Amino acid sequence: MTCSVRHAGAALALALSLAGDPAPAVAQRGTLLVPIDQLELRATRDSGDAAAQYDLGLAYLVKRRPDDAERAFRSALAVDSRFAPAYLGLAALPYARRPALWREVGRDKVPAEWEPALEEADGWRRRAVMIDPLVDLKVLVAVAPPREAMGLSKRELAIYTELVKGFEYFWDGRYQQAFDWFHQWYVYAEKERRKDDEGDAVPSWLLWYHGLSAAHILDYATALRDFGELLARATREDEDPDKLHLLISDANDFRYVLAVLNQRAERLHPATLLLEEVLTHDLGHYAAHSRLADIHEAQKRWGAAVRERERALASNPDDPGLLFDLGYTLGRAGRMGEAVEPLRRAYAQNPRNPRISFILGEVLQSLGRRDEAREVWSAFLAIAPASFSTQAAAVRAKLADAS
Fold it and tell me: Could you give the percent of the chain with pLDDT greater than 70?
């Protein structure tokens, strides 16, 4: 993807500006439902829970502590390298550290010393969307700037204030209400288009959120139509500045998101064709390889699934999550002996992830390597968070039976 700094900043800036008057939004959502000391305690106690680390990072952002937030987001990723919201959190940090960026990005006057941070943020943002196109966007609200920092005109503020309700529903996870609200504007935009018969009927940003909220309520027909249109627009490679307002803008990335939506809708054949097309444009698109592997697994095509896992890992060898995926798929395919090596490597690179040590113990146990399994499972029990209580109970029972 070849987004510029302006692409990255404008994408985040518009996403937040569409929340209307940001100051009340922060006041409404910035009140922590759980005291920060309790979140800190939970993050320490459940060090193997990526969500606990991420929630603490959100709280730090609300409290305007971006350095602490960064440490928490990176801690979440140290547990789970595919925890998409934490990448979006990292992408939002430059704007938390320098609120003036909202205006500077919009005016294309970013100080030179901040350009590298925004380029890096663009990479984090794209990675979040590639991992999960329906990634939770609440972190964006946590860094919403004062209204004056947006540099919006009086007319723009009036429009965005009217739109705020739909985005509030979206941020709150009330996706049916969000869809209903965006759909009203979708219908309005189509009517306006018929009046002047010029340009695209619906702005790209509205298609994005209309389609995204539709996907969240499992209305895949609408989501596929909206993202299909976004792909068509991006493929035309027009110079429409509206493209700057999206979380992604490259045609191949829209193609990938459309493939994921087809996969979620259980339309596996078109999903496969789209993913293969993504790879013709970018052979190193590891997320597409991973998604293809998921589809092959669903169809019990184990050989093809393993090949795609290997290709994903070759495209991104530093990701322990891809090592785990390869080992797990080998195990599910009945190739337990082959599964041990990638799982051990994943465990060595990411000992805080309880899923890795749990599965590695299962594989070792199935191979009759009980002493090794006991060692790994003991490490698992030492880090297992509350969310793994069922697995922890099963491991304790197996260890008790073996003693």
Answer: 82
Contacts of 160 (CB under 8 A, 6+ apart): 17, 18, 19, 20, 21, 152
Decide: helix, strand or coil at residue 202: coil
Entry pTM: 0.83
Per-residue pLDDT tens digits for 165-203: 777 777 678 899 999 999 988 888 887 766 665 555 788
Count of beta carbons in the 10 Å neighbourhood of residue 382: 12
Structure tokens at 281: 């444009």
Q: What token pair was written down for 158?
A: 């009036």
Choice between 144 and 211, residue whose per-residue pLDDT is larger: 211
CB 374 within 8 Å of CB 357: no
Mean pLDDT in residue range 99-118: 86
176: tokens are 């049916």
With beta carbons less than 8 A apart as the criterion, state whether 369 and 389 touch: no
Q: Is 352 helix (H, G, I), strand (E, B) or coil?
A: coil
CA distances from 228 to 74, 254, 373 (A): 34, 8, 48
Is 61 strand, coil or helix? helix
The Cα–Cα gap between 144 and 344 comes to: 42
